[in-house]
Amino acid sequence: MSESPVLLNKHEVERLLTYDDLIPRLESVMGKFSKRDSSEIIQPVRSVVPIQQHNGFLGVMPAYLAAEGILCTKMVTFYQRAEGSSLPSIQATVLLFHPEHGNVTAIMDGEAITAKRTAAVSAISAKLFKPALSEVLCILGSGQQARSHYDVFTKLFKFKEVRVWSRRKEMAQRFVNDLQDPVTVCSSVKEAVIGADVIVTATGASQPILFGEWVKPGAHIAAVGACRPDWRELDDVLMREAVVYVDSREGATAESGDIILSGAEVFAELGEVINGSFPAQREKTTVFKSLGMGIQDAVSAKLVLEKWNSEH
Ligand SMILES: NC(=O)C1=CN([C@@H]2O[C@H](COP(=O)(O)OP(=O)(O)OC[C@H]3O[C@@H](n4cnc5c(N)ncnc54)[C@H](O)[C@@H]3O)[C@@H](O)[C@H]2O)C=CC1
Ligand SMILES: O=C([O-])C1=[NH+]CCC1
């Protein structure tokens, strides 16, 4: 009879998962993934069950990392919520299994993992693609992802100015009120992005909100929202003019409306740049289109469990 799984709630996962530990593991696993060695990593494209009646979907995200001994799946729901709803848009649970025996070893909250690993991967993209002189950070959206991106981007990089825009100005104001450092609240997307060197799009938009004509040449955009084949955050001009990087080519061509509907060409995966097989075109305008990957959840969950085990 196997031992009962460890149960970890959001508070515990948040406490145990630090960006300093997470970033190197994500860099390593993204690099390995891009080598496409199926004896090392198996990660199918996310299975998605649309719940059209309620503006949501259920995604199942399994992954097996042989060398690391990680067998994992995340189950995640995303519901487009009314502004100010008390329920989060993303709710998730992550299961870790014993790869040899198949029993569940841990069941943990996936909200904190999703928030932190997505922001950490965007930060890796910014490290590689942002202009050498990056003074202005702009965040579009004021939800969970906006906050985790603010946290890790301002932890890793020094900006002279940080701007935030949200659909309702009071939500942007609420976001800023929670922070220690000054952040400019902008009244329009245009005002927020003009002159910005790094732009994070982390909204629930399903139509473009960011237009290429406003974007400073050479800027880097970490595009986190619009994770359905018919949803957009970025317009055709931006998608076609920028050098487009993705987390996974298969995920991007199956799920990203920004890529599918604009017809933009994917230049490389983040992992291919990490591996040195494709260049980081830092001097050009770059888009990193993130959809999220099971391997990112898997290494995050393993890290959380290792930390928890070291304390018990
Ligand atoms: N790439 C990835 O790995 C991940 C992507 N996501 C995506 O990131 C986005 C943000 O997620 P959360 O921060 O968790 O959600 P959230 O609900 O906490 O925040 C959503 C933000 O988008 C804004 N928004 C909603 N609809 C909008 C519209 N039509 N136009 C402009 N702004 C709009 C809201 O005002 C809010 O500021 C979602 O699209 C979600 O699917 C979430 C998790 C992982
Ligand atoms: O990777 C992820 O968990 C998600 N991507 C888009 C919605 C949830």
From TrEMBL:
Entry-linked Pfam families: OCD_Mu_crystall
The reactions it catalyses are: (S)-cystathionine ketimine + NADH + 2 H(+) = (3R,5S)-2,3,5,6,7-pentahydro-1,4-thiazepine-3,5-dicarboxylate + NAD(+); Delta(2)-thiazoline-2-carboxylate + NADPH + 2 H(+) = L-thiazolidine-2-carboxylate + NADP(+); L-proline + NAD(+) = 1-pyrroline-2-carboxylate + NADH + H(+); (3R)-1,4-thiomorpholine-3-carboxylate + NADP(+) = 3,4-dehydrothiomorpholine-3-carboxylate + NADPH + 2 H(+)
Q: Which GO terms describe its molecular function?
A: pyrroline-2-carboxylate reductase activity; thiomorpholine-carboxylate dehydrogenase activity; thyroid hormone binding
Instruction: Read off the InterPro entries from this record.
Output: NAD(P)-bd_dom_sf (IPR036291), ODC_Mu_crystall (IPR003462), ODC_N (IPR023401)
Which is one Gene Ontology cellular component term of this protein? cytoplasm
Query: Which family does the UniProt entry place this protein in?
Result: Belongs to the ornithine cyclodeaminase/mu-crystallin family.
What is the protein's given name? Ketimine reductase mu-crystallin
**Gene name of this polypeptide:** LOC107745653
